[in-house]
What we know:
This protein has 372 residues and is mostly beta strands. The chain contains four helices and 23 strands.
Amino acid sequence: MPRRLVELPLLRSLKPGLHVHDEEALNAEPSLDLLDEAITPLGAFFIRNNGALPEIVDAGAWTLTIDGEVERPAVWSLAALRETFETVTQTAVLECAGNGRSQFSPATDGLQWRLGAVGCARWTGVRLADVLRHAGVKPGAVYTGHHAPDRQIGKPEKAALSRGLPIAKALAPETLIAFGMNGEPLPRLHGGPLRIVAPGYPGSAWQKWLDRISLRAQEHDGEKMRGTDYRMPIRPLRPGEALDPADFAVITDMPVKSLITRPADGFTVAAGETVTVAGFAWSGAVPLAGLELSCDGGRSWRAVALEPGEGPYAWRRFEARLPAGQPGTLTVMARAHDAAGNRQPLEMPWNPRGYCNNQVQRVSGRVVARAG
Ligand SMILES: Nc1nc2c(c(=O)[nH]1)N[C@H]1C(S)=C(S)[C@@H](COP(=O)(O)O)O[C@H]1N2
Ligand SMILES: [Mo]
């Protein structure tokens, strides 16, 4: 019996509000109203899988192997990891690099995510740096390679995904080997019992079902690490242009972005009333610096305060009441910027794989004449 017959109902019961894009590799995202909370509930958090969920018979017997460019290769049980290293909790946004891909024109290959492949959670685990230092990082180590047992659908010999981190990010204090999410054991759908948490990096770098970390003397070349996979062009490319891998670089830090969670597209409001516009803004390595809102389709903008977030990698809430104005169409937009002066683009330049779309979101509704 295909495993999806068991797993799809499980996904639907654990995450009832999600739109399922792919029933075999279980890919699903929430509608934006479900994301209107500072900490995204497990039931609303998107899931992204490049292959079939791995069969995990006994999660308690899980081990993590550390090998490659280290002085002392090691095999850790879950209990030994917890006992040996300090447990820390880091609040961080997890966003798929393909979030918003459906907005690119012409359409690119890949899952046609709307805007919901993002969430903010409290991740609990041990620092990856502590585990690597315990093994003794050799001077030649420049990259990690992460491994997991999930396999491509119909190709059991091929890993679904095996990505890694530049050694500096692997040793950064925010990067974790996580076993908890929002105060609960890390759910299997989110990579339990162990996953990488790489705050600010695209979701693809957050390896799920982590069972081996191999330190490398070169950039990791595992599944979905080569060619144009999770890479952005370093020069503008036109649709149809021949692709040269030399023109691409691995996506590391995600760009500054915001999400309007209220109102929903297609809203109505009475003339003379106000409309509450709320949502979140976040950024990768460069700190978030501010946000502006427009309620006239981008002709004018006003700065709106961002509430403090739970640390530098969490998203920050904004909420403002804007006048609805006269009957007609009302388009609200949010535009965040970071401390280096990067602003969300009004139109995202096209790229061949449809990654990193941080274009300003437009939410349109109708202002209707006030009843009698
Ligand atoms: N083993 C494994 N890890 C993985 C993936 C995968 O297919 N297999 N997908 C990655 C991608 S592309 C994303 S966006 C995140 C999604 O994490 P989530 O499913 O917990 O939301 O997991 C990442 N880790
Ligand atoms: Mo992703």
